[in-house]
Amino acid sequence: MTDIQASLRIVLVGTQHPGNIGSAARAMKTMGLSGLHLVAPERFPDVEANTLAAGADDLLASAAVHADLDAALAGCHFVLGTSARRRHVPLPELSPRQAAAQLVEAAARGPVALLFGRERTGLENEELQRCHASVGIPTNPGFSSLNLAAAVQVLSYELRLAWLATQGPEAPSGRPVPGAEPEPPATADELERYFAHLDQALHDIDFHKGKPPEMVMARLRRLYLRAGLDARELKILRGILAEAQRMARLARGGPMKA
Ligand code: SAH
Protein backbone atom coordinates (compact mmCIF):
# COMPACT_ATOMS: atom_id res chain seq x y z
CA MET A 1 0.00 0.00 0.00
CA THR A 2 3.04 2.21 -0.38
CA ASP A 3 1.38 4.72 -2.70
CA ILE A 4 -1.50 5.60 -0.41
CA GLN A 5 0.68 5.22 2.67
CA ALA A 6 2.78 8.07 1.37
CA SER A 7 0.00 10.43 0.38
CA LEU A 8 -3.04 9.67 2.58
CA ARG A 9 -3.23 11.66 5.82
CA ILE A 10 -5.54 10.52 8.58
CA VAL A 11 -6.01 13.78 10.49
CA LEU A 12 -7.36 13.71 14.06
CA VAL A 13 -8.46 17.22 15.02
CA GLY A 14 -8.36 18.33 18.66
CA THR A 15 -8.49 14.81 20.10
CA GLN A 16 -9.28 14.89 23.82
CA HIS A 17 -8.45 11.35 24.98
CA PRO A 18 -4.93 10.05 24.20
CA GLY A 19 -6.30 6.49 24.35
CA ASN A 20 -8.28 7.25 21.22
CA ILE A 21 -5.11 8.35 19.42
CA GLY A 22 -3.52 5.00 20.33
CA SER A 23 -6.58 3.01 19.25
CA ALA A 24 -6.77 4.98 16.00
CA ALA A 25 -3.09 4.17 15.30
CA ARG A 26 -3.80 0.49 15.88
CA ALA A 27 -6.88 0.64 13.62
CA MET A 28 -4.81 2.25 10.87
CA LYS A 29 -1.87 -0.13 11.13
CA THR A 30 -4.09 -3.22 10.88
CA MET A 31 -5.32 -1.82 7.56
CA GLY A 32 -1.86 -0.95 6.25
CA LEU A 33 -2.10 2.82 6.75
CA SER A 34 0.59 4.93 8.40
CA GLY A 35 0.09 8.67 7.82
CA LEU A 36 -1.21 9.79 11.20
CA HIS A 37 -1.54 13.57 11.66
CA LEU A 38 -2.68 15.23 14.88
CA VAL A 39 -3.97 18.79 15.10
CA ALA A 40 -3.60 20.31 18.58
CA PRO A 41 -4.23 17.11 20.56
CA GLU A 42 -5.07 17.81 24.22
CA ARG A 43 -2.57 15.24 25.58
CA PHE A 44 0.13 13.78 23.35
CA PRO A 45 2.52 12.01 23.69
CA ASP A 46 0.90 10.12 26.54
CA VAL A 47 1.36 6.65 28.01
CA GLU A 48 -2.35 5.88 27.48
CA ALA A 49 -1.88 6.37 23.74
CA ASN A 50 0.97 3.84 23.70
CA THR A 51 -0.98 1.36 25.81
CA LEU A 52 -3.93 1.36 23.42
CA ALA A 53 -1.74 1.38 20.31
CA ALA A 54 -0.81 -2.19 21.31
CA GLY A 55 2.14 -2.52 18.94
CA ALA A 56 1.33 0.36 16.62
CA ASP A 57 3.74 2.60 18.56
CA ASP A 58 5.71 3.24 15.38
CA LEU A 59 2.74 5.17 13.99
CA LEU A 60 2.61 7.27 17.18
CA ALA A 61 6.35 7.92 17.02
CA SER A 62 6.12 9.09 13.43
CA ALA A 63 2.83 11.00 13.87
CA ALA A 64 3.00 14.63 12.71
CA VAL A 65 1.68 17.04 15.34
CA HIS A 66 0.37 20.34 13.95
CA ALA A 67 -0.65 23.55 15.70
CA ASP A 68 -3.60 24.09 13.36
CA LEU A 69 -5.57 22.52 10.52
CA ASP A 70 -3.91 24.68 7.85
CA ALA A 71 -0.55 23.11 8.68
CA ALA A 72 -2.02 19.59 8.54
CA LEU A 73 -3.59 20.23 5.13
CA ALA A 74 -0.60 21.97 3.52
CA GLY A 75 -0.13 20.55 0.02
CA CYS A 76 -3.35 18.47 0.07
CA HIS A 77 -5.49 18.64 -3.05
CA PHE A 78 -8.45 16.60 -1.78
CA VAL A 79 -9.94 16.72 1.73
CA LEU A 80 -12.87 14.83 3.24
CA GLY A 81 -14.33 15.29 6.73
CA THR A 82 -16.18 12.66 8.74
CA SER A 83 -19.26 13.67 10.68
CA ALA A 84 -21.74 11.84 12.86
CA ARG A 85 -24.59 14.19 12.04
CA ARG A 86 -25.87 16.47 9.31
CA ARG A 87 -24.55 20.00 9.65
CA HIS A 88 -25.65 23.39 8.43
CA VAL A 89 -22.63 23.48 6.13
CA PRO A 90 -23.93 22.69 2.63
CA LEU A 91 -21.59 19.86 1.65
CA PRO A 92 -22.15 16.80 -0.52
CA GLU A 93 -22.29 13.69 1.66
CA LEU A 94 -20.46 10.47 0.78
CA SER A 95 -20.79 6.96 2.16
CA PRO A 96 -17.58 5.45 3.59
CA ARG A 97 -17.32 3.29 0.46
CA GLN A 98 -17.61 6.22 -1.95
CA ALA A 99 -15.20 8.25 0.19
CA ALA A 100 -12.59 5.49 0.24
CA ALA A 101 -12.73 5.00 -3.53
CA GLN A 102 -12.33 8.73 -4.14
CA LEU A 103 -9.47 9.04 -1.62
CA VAL A 104 -7.53 6.12 -3.09
CA GLU A 105 -8.00 7.46 -6.60
CA ALA A 106 -6.98 11.00 -5.60
CA ALA A 107 -4.02 9.79 -3.50
CA ALA A 108 -2.37 8.54 -6.67
CA ARG A 109 -2.10 12.21 -7.76
CA GLY A 110 -0.74 13.76 -4.54
CA PRO A 111 -1.47 14.29 -0.83
CA VAL A 112 -5.07 13.85 0.37
CA ALA A 113 -6.61 14.04 3.86
CA LEU A 114 -9.44 12.46 5.82
CA LEU A 115 -10.46 14.45 8.92
CA PHE A 116 -11.88 13.18 12.20
CA GLY A 117 -13.32 15.50 14.85
CA ARG A 118 -13.24 15.90 18.61
CA GLU A 119 -14.89 13.29 20.81
CA ARG A 120 -17.37 15.72 22.33
CA THR A 121 -18.14 18.15 19.54
CA GLY A 122 -16.84 16.69 16.27
CA LEU A 123 -15.49 19.00 13.55
CA GLU A 124 -16.37 22.68 13.65
CA ASN A 125 -18.25 24.21 10.71
CA GLU A 126 -15.18 26.16 9.54
CA GLU A 127 -13.21 22.90 9.56
CA LEU A 128 -15.89 21.13 7.50
CA GLN A 129 -15.83 24.04 5.07
CA ARG A 130 -12.26 23.06 4.19
CA CYS A 131 -13.60 19.73 2.89
CA HIS A 132 -14.72 18.71 -0.59
CA ALA A 133 -17.40 16.50 0.97
CA SER A 134 -18.44 15.00 4.30
CA VAL A 135 -18.48 11.31 5.09
CA GLY A 136 -21.17 9.74 7.26
CA ILE A 137 -21.04 6.16 8.52
CA PRO A 138 -24.65 4.96 8.26
CA THR A 139 -25.82 4.27 11.80
CA ASN A 140 -28.86 3.92 14.01
CA PRO A 141 -30.48 7.36 13.59
CA GLY A 142 -31.27 7.45 17.30
CA PHE A 143 -27.65 6.70 18.31
CA SER A 144 -25.39 7.83 15.51
CA SER A 145 -22.07 8.72 17.11
CA LEU A 146 -19.28 6.10 17.03
CA ASN A 147 -16.23 6.23 19.25
CA LEU A 148 -13.55 8.20 17.39
CA ALA A 149 -11.17 5.23 16.97
CA ALA A 150 -14.07 2.99 15.88
CA ALA A 151 -14.87 5.52 13.14
CA VAL A 152 -11.19 5.50 12.11
CA GLN A 153 -11.38 1.69 11.94
CA VAL A 154 -14.44 1.68 9.68
CA LEU A 155 -12.90 4.18 7.26
CA SER A 156 -9.46 2.48 7.34
CA TYR A 157 -11.12 -0.82 6.45
CA GLU A 158 -12.98 0.77 3.54
CA LEU A 159 -9.71 2.35 2.40
CA ARG A 160 -8.06 -1.05 2.42
CA LEU A 161 -10.89 -2.59 0.39
CA ALA A 162 -10.74 0.28 -2.10
CA TRP A 163 -6.97 -0.03 -2.37
CA LEU A 164 -7.14 -3.83 -2.81
CA ALA A 165 -9.63 -3.29 -5.64
CA THR A 166 -6.95 -1.31 -7.50
CA GLN A 167 -4.44 -4.18 -7.16
CA GLY A 168 -6.31 -6.77 -9.25
CA PRO A 169 -4.99 -7.98 -12.63
CA GLU A 170 -7.31 -5.62 -14.52
CA ALA A 171 -6.68 -2.66 -12.23
CA PRO A 172 -5.72 0.56 -13.99
CA SER A 173 -1.96 1.02 -14.21
CA GLY A 174 -2.13 4.67 -13.16
CA ARG A 175 0.37 5.52 -15.90
CA PRO A 176 -0.59 8.74 -17.70
CA VAL A 177 -1.46 8.53 -21.38
CA PRO A 178 1.55 9.95 -23.28
CA GLY A 179 0.92 13.54 -24.34
CA ALA A 180 -2.03 13.89 -21.97
CA GLU A 181 -0.27 14.46 -18.66
CA PRO A 182 -2.76 16.18 -16.36
CA GLU A 183 -2.03 19.48 -14.64
CA PRO A 184 -1.32 19.08 -10.93
CA PRO A 185 -4.53 19.47 -8.89
CA ALA A 186 -4.97 22.70 -6.92
CA THR A 187 -3.88 22.26 -3.30
CA ALA A 188 -5.92 23.19 -0.23
CA ASP A 189 -3.70 26.21 0.46
CA GLU A 190 -3.99 27.46 -3.14
CA LEU A 191 -7.76 27.09 -2.91
CA GLU A 192 -7.84 29.05 0.37
CA ARG A 193 -5.89 31.87 -1.28
CA TYR A 194 -8.35 31.75 -4.18
CA PHE A 195 -11.36 31.97 -1.82
CA ALA A 196 -9.81 34.97 -0.06
CA HIS A 197 -9.29 36.61 -3.47
CA LEU A 198 -12.87 35.77 -4.53
CA ASP A 199 -14.24 37.22 -1.29
CA GLN A 200 -12.32 40.45 -1.86
CA ALA A 201 -13.33 40.65 -5.54
CA LEU A 202 -17.03 40.19 -4.69
CA HIS A 203 -16.73 43.10 -2.27
CA ASP A 204 -14.88 45.20 -4.86
CA ILE A 205 -17.61 44.72 -7.46
CA ASP A 206 -20.29 45.26 -4.74
CA PHE A 207 -21.84 41.87 -5.47
CA HIS A 208 -23.46 41.49 -2.05
CA LYS A 209 -25.29 44.85 -2.04
CA GLY A 210 -25.13 45.04 1.74
CA LYS A 211 -26.34 41.46 2.32
CA PRO A 212 -24.16 39.20 4.54
CA PRO A 213 -21.65 37.31 2.33
CA GLU A 214 -21.30 34.10 4.39
CA MET A 215 -24.01 31.97 2.76
CA VAL A 216 -22.98 32.89 -0.79
CA MET A 217 -19.33 32.18 0.05
CA ALA A 218 -20.24 28.78 1.54
CA ARG A 219 -22.15 27.88 -1.65
CA LEU A 220 -19.37 29.11 -3.90
CA ARG A 221 -16.85 27.09 -1.91
CA ARG A 222 -18.98 24.00 -2.45
CA LEU A 223 -19.21 24.73 -6.17
CA TYR A 224 -15.47 25.21 -6.64
CA LEU A 225 -14.53 22.22 -4.47
CA ARG A 226 -16.93 20.03 -6.44
CA ALA A 227 -15.25 21.09 -9.67
CA GLY A 228 -11.90 19.50 -8.69
CA LEU A 229 -9.86 22.40 -10.08
CA ASP A 230 -6.31 22.00 -11.30
CA ALA A 231 -3.57 24.58 -10.77
CA ARG A 232 -3.91 26.05 -14.27
CA GLU A 233 -7.69 26.47 -14.00
CA LEU A 234 -7.22 28.23 -10.68
CA LYS A 235 -4.76 30.60 -12.31
CA ILE A 236 -7.30 31.48 -15.01
CA LEU A 237 -9.99 32.13 -12.38
CA ARG A 238 -7.64 34.37 -10.42
CA GLY A 239 -6.88 36.25 -13.64
CA ILE A 240 -10.62 36.83 -14.17
CA LEU A 241 -11.01 38.12 -10.60
CA ALA A 242 -8.06 40.48 -11.00
CA GLU A 243 -9.56 41.83 -14.23
CA ALA A 244 -12.99 42.33 -12.59
CA GLN A 245 -11.31 44.20 -9.73
CA ARG A 246 -9.43 46.38 -12.22
CA MET A 247 -12.68 47.23 -14.06
CA ALA A 248 -14.40 48.04 -10.77
CA ARG A 249 -11.57 50.39 -9.84
CA LEU A 250 -11.83 52.09 -13.25
CA ALA A 251 -15.60 52.43 -12.93
CA ARG A 252 -15.11 54.15 -9.59
CA GLY A 253 -12.62 56.49 -11.25
CA GLY A 254 -9.78 55.11 -9.17
CA PRO A 255 -6.17 54.84 -10.31
CA MET A 256 -5.31 52.21 -12.93
CA LYS A 257 -2.88 49.59 -11.67
CA ALA A 258 -0.36 48.39 -14.24
N1 SAH B 1 -20.88 14.69 19.22
C1 SAH B 1 -20.00 14.65 18.10
C2 SAH B 1 -19.53 13.24 17.92
C3 SAH B 1 -18.12 13.18 17.70
S1 SAH B 1 -17.56 11.53 17.59
C4 SAH B 1 -20.72 15.10 16.85
O1 SAH B 1 -21.92 15.15 16.88
O2 SAH B 1 -20.11 15.40 15.83
C5 SAH B 1 -15.88 11.84 17.16
C6 SAH B 1 -15.58 11.73 15.69
O3 SAH B 1 -15.77 10.38 15.25
C7 SAH B 1 -16.44 12.57 14.77
O4 SAH B 1 -16.02 13.92 14.69
C8 SAH B 1 -16.21 11.84 13.45
O5 SAH B 1 -14.93 12.19 12.96
C9 SAH B 1 -16.19 10.38 13.90
N2 SAH B 1 -17.53 9.76 13.83
C10 SAH B 1 -18.27 9.29 14.86
N3 SAH B 1 -19.41 8.78 14.42
C11 SAH B 1 -19.43 8.91 13.08
C12 SAH B 1 -20.35 8.57 12.02
N4 SAH B 1 -21.52 7.98 12.26
N5 SAH B 1 -20.00 8.87 10.76
C13 SAH B 1 -18.82 9.47 10.47
N6 SAH B 1 -17.92 9.81 11.42
C14 SAH B 1 -18.21 9.54 12.70
Quick take:
The protein has 258 residues and is α/β, with parallel strands linked by helices. The protein is 47% helix and 11% strand.
Which helices and strands appear, and what pairs or packs with what?
Blueprint: H1 2-7, E1 8-13, H2 18-30, E2 36-39, H3 47-53, H4 57-61, E3 64-66, H5 69-73, E4 78-82, E5 93-94, H6 96-107, E6 112-116, H7 125-128, E7 133-135, H8 148-165, H9 188-204, H10 214-227, H11 231-251
Parallel strand pairs: 1-2, 1-6, 2-3, 4-6, 4-7, 5-7
Bound molecules: S-adenosyl-L-homocysteine (SAH).
Description of the structure:
It is built from eleven helices and seven strands. With 258 residues, the protein is an alpha/beta fold. It folds into two domains: 2-165, Alpha/beta knot (3-Layer(aba) Sandwich); 188-251, Orthogonal Bundle (Helicase, Ruva Protein, domain 3). It has a seven-stranded parallel sheet with strand order 3-2-1-6-4-7-5. α2 links the parallel β1 (8-13) and β2 (36-39). α6 crosses α8 (148-165). The mean pLDDT is 91. Residues 82-85, 116-117, 119, 121-123, 135-137, 139, 144-146, 148, 151 line the site of S-adenosyl-L-homocysteine.
- What's the overall geometry? globular
> Which structural class do the helices and strands define?
alpha/beta
Per DSSP, the total helix count is: 11
Q: Please identify the top-level CATH class of the largest domain.
A: Alpha Beta
| Low-confidence runs of at least 5 consecutive residues | none
Roughly what percent helix?
40-55%
Query: Rg to the nearest angstrom?
Result: 20 Å
